[in-house]
Amino acid sequence: MTIIKATCPCCGDVELTRDQVSLTVHPVKERSSYAFTCPQCGDEVRKPAGAEVIRLLKMGGVTPVPVDMPAEAAEQHHGPQLTEDECLDFANWLTSATAVAAAAAVGLHHRLDAGLD
Ligand SMILES: [Zn+2]
């Protein structure tokens, strides 16, 4: 069986089997990580997993666990951020709106904000 060498922050180098290592592969590359419970101190160790680490762990027989992430979480956003006042205005509008979905479909909230209705 393949031995995987990893480093515990407390104990230094430790040897693990593939079943002792979990690999989480995230759609956002920087969020991928691997984890293990140190066989010496029992601490849970989690570290970032770059492309090379992912490749080596897969070669060692570790089965990657994909992260299910909604597509919206990876969207790039442009323009100014929503301000606290805008959020409060929207919350106030929601409390008075009776047909939110219908209003959103026709852009009624813009007309309400402009005081046209
Ligand atoms: Zn340890």
Describe it for me?
The model has no long low-confidence stretch (mean pLDDT 87). Helices cover 30% and strands 24% of the residues. The chain has helices at 51-59, 84-96, 100-106, 108-113, and strands at residues 4-8, 12-16, 21-25, 33-37, 44-48, 64-66. The protein is an alpha+beta fold and 117 residues long. The radius of gyration is 24 Å and the shape is elongated. Bound molecules: zinc ion. Zinc ion (ZN) binds at residues 8, 10-11, 38, 40-41, 43. The site of zinc ion has 7 residues, from loops.
Brief write-up:
The chain is 30% helix and 24% strand. It is α+β, with helices and mostly antiparallel strands and 117 residues long. It folds into two domains: 4-68, no CATH class; 82-117.
Which helices and strands occur, and which strands form pairs?
Elements: E1 4-8, E2 12-16, E3 21-25, E4 33-37, E5 44-48, H1 51-59, E6 64-66, H2 84-96, H3 100-106, H4 108-113
Parallel strand pairs: 3-6
Antiparallel strand pairs: 1-2, 3-4, 4-5
The structure holds zinc ion (ZN).
Residues 8, 10-11, 38, 40-41, 43 line the site of zinc ion (ZN).
